[in-house]
Amino acid sequence: MEDIPENVRTFMESLKRVDLRGRQGAAFDTRYEHEQAGALSVIEKYLKSYGMEIASSGLPVLLPSGAGEGPLITNELSKCTRFGKSIGEKIITNAQ
Question: What is the pLDDT of residue 53?
Fold first, then answer.
């Protein structure tokens, strides 16, 4: 698959051992605000290849350019909270 950080690739490939067929989930990535693309599409391809149903489009979580590992841009954490809540609600609704 495309270029992603080695630790992310290792984790994604470790999921081969888990039966994800029919399970629901979603992906997120962390990227600098100036980056147009991150690992979202690659992560979603991995999940789909393992049979997972994508419950929601992925979420890019933004860091200020040149910030290293953080902190996140203002309001990104609340965006993550809403994303997680939305996924949970979709999964519960689909299970009923």
Answer: 94
Distance CA 51, CA 24 (A): 9
Beta strand extents in 1-96 (DSSP E only): 24-25, 28-32, 53-54, 59-63
SS3 28: strand
Q: Which residues pair with 59 in a beta bridge?
A: 28
Give me the chain's average pLDDT, please. 90
* pLDDT tens, residue by residue, 66-82: 777 778 899 999 999 99
pTM: 0.83
Label residue 39 exposed, middle or buried (CB < 10 Å: 0-12, 13-18, 19+).
buried
Query: Using N-to-C axis directions, what is the helix angle for 40-49 and 6-14, rounded to 10°?
Result: 20
Question: Domain boundaries in the chain?
Answer: 6-95
- Could you tell me the fold of the domain covering 6-95? Rossmann fold (3.40.50)
